[in-house]
Design a protein that fits this description.
Strand order of the largest sheet: 3-5-4
Strand content: 5-15%
Shape: elongated
Radius of gyration: 21 Å
Structural class: mainly alpha
Length: 267
Protein backbone atom coordinates (compact mmCIF):
# COMPACT_ATOMS: atom_id res chain seq x y z
CA UNK A 1 0.00 0.00 0.00
CA UNK A 2 1.59 3.31 -1.04
CA UNK A 3 2.64 5.74 1.67
CA UNK A 4 0.76 9.01 1.63
CA UNK A 5 2.07 12.24 3.10
CA UNK A 6 0.04 15.05 4.53
CA UNK A 7 0.74 18.70 3.95
CA UNK A 8 1.89 18.86 7.57
CA UNK A 9 4.51 16.16 6.88
CA UNK A 10 5.70 17.99 3.78
CA UNK A 11 5.96 21.25 5.68
CA UNK A 12 7.94 19.55 8.45
CA UNK A 13 10.36 18.00 5.93
CA UNK A 14 10.80 21.35 4.20
CA UNK A 15 11.44 22.99 7.56
CA UNK A 16 14.18 20.45 8.33
CA UNK A 17 15.82 21.23 4.98
CA UNK A 18 15.48 24.95 5.73
CA UNK A 19 17.27 24.46 9.06
CA UNK A 20 20.06 22.70 7.17
CA UNK A 21 20.49 25.79 5.01
CA UNK A 22 21.31 27.86 8.10
CA UNK A 23 24.92 26.75 8.67
CA UNK A 24 25.28 27.98 12.24
CA UNK A 25 21.93 26.69 13.48
CA UNK A 26 22.21 23.51 15.59
CA UNK A 27 19.53 21.13 16.95
CA UNK A 28 20.82 21.59 20.49
CA UNK A 29 19.90 25.27 20.32
CA UNK A 30 16.41 24.88 18.85
CA UNK A 31 13.69 22.60 20.21
CA UNK A 32 11.85 22.37 16.87
CA UNK A 33 15.06 21.57 14.98
CA UNK A 34 15.99 18.91 17.51
CA UNK A 35 12.56 17.27 17.25
CA UNK A 36 12.74 17.19 13.44
CA UNK A 37 16.18 15.58 13.57
CA UNK A 38 14.84 12.98 16.01
CA UNK A 39 11.90 12.25 13.72
CA UNK A 40 14.23 11.93 10.71
CA UNK A 41 16.19 9.24 12.53
CA UNK A 42 13.13 7.28 13.68
CA UNK A 43 10.62 7.68 10.82
CA UNK A 44 11.76 6.19 7.51
CA UNK A 45 8.82 7.69 5.63
CA UNK A 46 9.69 11.16 6.94
CA UNK A 47 13.33 10.55 6.08
CA UNK A 48 12.42 9.68 2.49
CA UNK A 49 10.15 12.74 2.27
CA UNK A 50 12.96 14.98 3.50
CA UNK A 51 15.28 13.60 0.82
CA UNK A 52 12.59 14.17 -1.82
CA UNK A 53 12.06 17.78 -0.73
CA UNK A 54 15.81 18.41 -0.79
CA UNK A 55 16.16 16.77 -4.20
CA UNK A 56 13.43 18.99 -5.61
CA UNK A 57 15.48 21.99 -4.50
CA UNK A 58 18.69 20.68 -6.09
CA UNK A 59 20.16 19.51 -2.78
CA UNK A 60 21.42 16.25 -1.33
CA UNK A 61 21.05 15.30 2.33
CA UNK A 62 24.48 14.05 3.36
CA UNK A 63 23.62 13.26 6.96
CA UNK A 64 21.30 14.33 9.76
CA UNK A 65 22.54 14.10 13.36
CA UNK A 66 21.92 15.87 16.65
CA UNK A 67 25.55 17.05 16.62
CA UNK A 68 25.71 18.42 13.08
CA UNK A 69 22.07 18.98 12.23
CA UNK A 70 20.89 18.55 8.65
CA UNK A 71 23.98 18.68 6.43
CA UNK A 72 23.27 19.43 2.79
CA UNK A 73 25.23 19.60 -0.43
CA UNK A 74 24.16 21.21 -3.68
CA UNK A 75 23.88 19.07 -6.79
CA UNK A 76 25.38 20.13 -10.11
CA UNK A 77 23.72 23.22 -11.57
CA UNK A 78 21.66 23.73 -8.43
CA UNK A 79 20.70 27.30 -7.67
CA UNK A 80 22.33 26.72 -4.26
CA UNK A 81 25.65 25.58 -5.71
CA UNK A 82 28.46 27.92 -4.68
CA UNK A 83 30.14 29.02 -7.88
CA UNK A 84 33.64 30.47 -7.91
CA UNK A 85 32.33 33.96 -8.58
CA UNK A 86 29.98 33.68 -5.60
CA UNK A 87 32.76 32.32 -3.40
CA UNK A 88 35.03 35.09 -4.61
CA UNK A 89 32.51 37.71 -3.53
CA UNK A 90 31.97 36.11 -0.14
CA UNK A 91 35.69 35.54 0.49
CA UNK A 92 36.54 38.97 -0.99
CA UNK A 93 38.90 37.56 -3.59
CA UNK A 94 40.07 40.35 -5.83
CA UNK A 95 40.95 38.22 -8.83
CA UNK A 96 38.78 35.44 -10.24
CA UNK A 97 41.14 34.05 -12.84
CA UNK A 98 41.68 30.33 -13.26
CA UNK A 99 44.91 30.53 -11.24
CA UNK A 100 43.02 31.98 -8.29
CA UNK A 101 40.50 29.15 -8.45
CA UNK A 102 43.26 26.56 -8.28
CA UNK A 103 45.06 28.31 -5.44
CA UNK A 104 41.93 28.51 -3.31
CA UNK A 105 41.17 24.90 -4.17
CA UNK A 106 44.60 23.96 -2.78
CA UNK A 107 43.92 25.94 0.39
CA UNK A 108 40.60 24.18 0.98
CA UNK A 109 42.13 20.76 0.29
CA UNK A 110 44.96 21.49 2.74
CA UNK A 111 42.53 22.70 5.40
CA UNK A 112 40.50 19.49 5.12
CA UNK A 113 43.62 17.31 5.18
CA UNK A 114 44.99 19.11 8.23
CA UNK A 115 41.65 18.96 10.01
CA UNK A 116 41.32 15.20 9.43
CA UNK A 117 44.75 13.80 8.49
CA UNK A 118 43.91 10.13 9.21
CA UNK A 119 41.03 7.92 8.08
CA UNK A 120 40.23 7.18 11.73
CA UNK A 121 39.73 10.90 12.35
CA UNK A 122 36.96 11.05 9.76
CA UNK A 123 35.35 7.89 11.12
CA UNK A 124 35.38 9.11 14.74
CA UNK A 125 32.38 11.35 15.36
CA UNK A 126 33.95 12.74 18.54
CA UNK A 127 37.20 13.83 16.87
CA UNK A 128 37.86 17.57 16.78
CA UNK A 129 40.66 18.85 14.57
CA UNK A 130 42.46 22.16 14.75
CA UNK A 131 43.90 24.20 11.91
CA UNK A 132 45.57 27.58 11.75
CA UNK A 133 46.37 30.05 9.00
CA UNK A 134 50.10 29.46 9.42
CA UNK A 135 49.73 25.66 9.37
CA UNK A 136 47.61 25.63 6.22
CA UNK A 137 50.00 27.99 4.46
CA UNK A 138 53.01 25.94 5.59
CA UNK A 139 51.40 22.72 4.36
CA UNK A 140 50.66 24.08 0.90
CA UNK A 141 54.19 25.48 0.64
CA UNK A 142 55.67 22.15 1.67
CA UNK A 143 53.43 20.43 -0.85
CA UNK A 144 54.70 22.93 -3.44
CA UNK A 145 58.29 21.95 -2.61
CA UNK A 146 57.51 18.24 -2.98
CA UNK A 147 55.64 18.86 -6.21
CA UNK A 148 58.55 20.93 -7.50
CA UNK A 149 60.86 17.97 -7.00
CA UNK A 150 58.34 15.68 -8.71
CA UNK A 151 58.03 18.07 -11.64
CA UNK A 152 61.81 18.30 -12.08
CA UNK A 153 62.06 14.51 -12.05
CA UNK A 154 59.25 14.28 -14.61
CA UNK A 155 61.01 16.76 -16.88
CA UNK A 156 64.28 14.86 -16.53
CA UNK A 157 62.44 11.72 -17.64
CA UNK A 158 60.85 13.58 -20.57
CA UNK A 159 57.43 13.26 -18.96
CA UNK A 160 55.60 16.54 -19.76
CA UNK A 161 54.27 18.35 -16.70
CA UNK A 162 51.00 18.99 -18.54
CA UNK A 163 50.27 15.28 -18.25
CA UNK A 164 50.62 15.37 -14.44
CA UNK A 165 47.68 15.76 -12.04
CA UNK A 166 46.21 19.26 -11.73
CA UNK A 167 47.65 19.56 -8.23
CA UNK A 168 51.17 19.38 -9.64
CA UNK A 169 50.45 22.21 -12.06
CA UNK A 170 49.47 24.63 -9.30
CA UNK A 171 52.58 24.71 -7.12
CA UNK A 172 54.42 27.45 -8.99
CA UNK A 173 51.65 30.02 -8.59
CA UNK A 174 51.43 29.47 -4.83
CA UNK A 175 55.18 29.22 -4.18
CA UNK A 176 56.02 32.49 -5.91
CA UNK A 177 53.63 34.52 -3.75
CA UNK A 178 54.93 35.96 -0.48
CA UNK A 179 53.67 34.22 2.64
CA UNK A 180 53.09 37.40 4.62
CA UNK A 181 53.40 41.14 4.24
CA UNK A 182 51.83 44.01 6.11
CA UNK A 183 49.92 46.92 4.62
CA UNK A 184 50.63 50.49 5.70
CA UNK A 185 47.98 50.26 8.40
CA UNK A 186 49.41 47.00 9.77
CA UNK A 187 46.87 44.59 8.29
CA UNK A 188 47.84 41.43 6.40
CA UNK A 189 48.19 42.14 2.69
CA UNK A 190 45.36 40.54 0.70
CA UNK A 191 47.56 39.13 -2.08
CA UNK A 192 49.83 37.12 0.26
CA UNK A 193 49.24 33.41 0.71
CA UNK A 194 48.44 33.81 4.40
CA UNK A 195 45.98 36.54 3.51
CA UNK A 196 44.30 34.10 1.11
CA UNK A 197 44.27 31.34 3.72
CA UNK A 198 42.83 33.69 6.34
CA UNK A 199 39.93 34.61 4.06
CA UNK A 200 39.29 30.96 3.20
CA UNK A 201 39.16 29.94 6.87
CA UNK A 202 36.84 32.82 7.72
CA UNK A 203 34.58 31.73 4.86
CA UNK A 204 34.48 28.18 6.27
CA UNK A 205 33.65 29.61 9.70
CA UNK A 206 30.79 31.59 8.18
CA UNK A 207 29.48 28.33 6.70
CA UNK A 208 29.48 26.63 10.11
CA UNK A 209 32.40 24.34 9.23
CA UNK A 210 34.99 25.91 11.54
CA UNK A 211 34.93 27.90 14.76
CA UNK A 212 37.72 30.33 15.59
CA UNK A 213 39.27 29.62 18.98
CA UNK A 214 42.16 32.11 19.07
CA UNK A 215 44.20 34.60 17.08
CA UNK A 216 47.35 32.50 17.45
CA UNK A 217 49.26 31.47 14.32
CA UNK A 218 47.34 33.96 12.23
CA UNK A 219 44.02 32.56 13.46
CA UNK A 220 43.37 29.10 14.91
CA UNK A 221 40.12 27.22 14.32
CA UNK A 222 38.49 23.99 15.47
CA UNK A 223 36.48 21.74 13.18
CA UNK A 224 32.77 21.05 13.60
CA UNK A 225 30.68 17.89 13.03
CA UNK A 226 29.19 19.65 10.02
CA UNK A 227 32.66 20.01 8.47
CA UNK A 228 33.54 16.40 9.25
CA UNK A 229 30.57 15.21 7.21
CA UNK A 230 31.53 17.47 4.30
CA UNK A 231 35.15 16.26 4.38
CA UNK A 232 33.97 12.66 4.26
CA UNK A 233 32.47 13.51 0.88
CA UNK A 234 35.62 15.38 -0.18
CA UNK A 235 37.80 12.42 0.78
CA UNK A 236 36.51 10.60 -2.30
CA UNK A 237 38.13 13.26 -4.49
CA UNK A 238 41.35 12.21 -6.24
CA UNK A 239 43.00 15.56 -5.51
CA UNK A 240 42.49 15.01 -1.78
CA UNK A 241 44.24 11.64 -2.05
CA UNK A 242 47.06 13.22 -4.06
CA UNK A 243 47.63 15.81 -1.35
CA UNK A 244 47.65 13.28 1.49
CA UNK A 245 50.00 11.06 -0.52
CA UNK A 246 52.64 13.80 -0.40
CA UNK A 247 53.05 13.00 3.32
CA UNK A 248 53.34 16.61 4.46
CA UNK A 249 50.81 16.37 7.31
CA UNK A 250 52.21 15.81 10.81
CA UNK A 251 49.94 14.50 13.56
CA UNK A 252 50.63 14.85 17.29
CA UNK A 253 47.90 12.64 18.70
CA UNK A 254 44.23 11.95 19.14
CA UNK A 255 43.53 15.40 20.52
CA UNK A 256 43.45 16.94 17.08
CA UNK A 257 46.40 19.29 17.60
CA UNK A 258 48.96 19.23 14.84
CA UNK A 259 52.62 19.61 15.71
CA UNK A 260 54.74 22.06 13.76
CA UNK A 261 56.73 20.75 10.83
CA UNK A 262 59.92 22.09 9.37
CA UNK A 263 57.83 23.73 6.70
CA UNK A 264 56.29 26.04 9.32
CA UNK A 265 59.42 28.15 9.08
CA UNK A 266 59.04 28.79 5.38
CA UNK A 267 58.29 32.38 4.45
Amino acid sequence: MPVTHTSVDAEAAARLVAFGMRPKQLPARDVVYGELVRRYGEDNAFKALTHAVASGLGLMVLEVTQQAGCVLAATDESVFEIKMDSYARQAKIRERRETEKVLHGLIHLATAALGYPRPDDLANDTYIGRVSVEQVDAMVREAARVLDERAQLAEANNDPLADAPELEQAWRAYARRPAAAATKDGRMAADTTRGMVSRALRFLADQGFLVQVSDEQGGTYRTTPRYQIQVRELAADAAFDDLLALDVVAVAGAGGTLRATASDTLQ
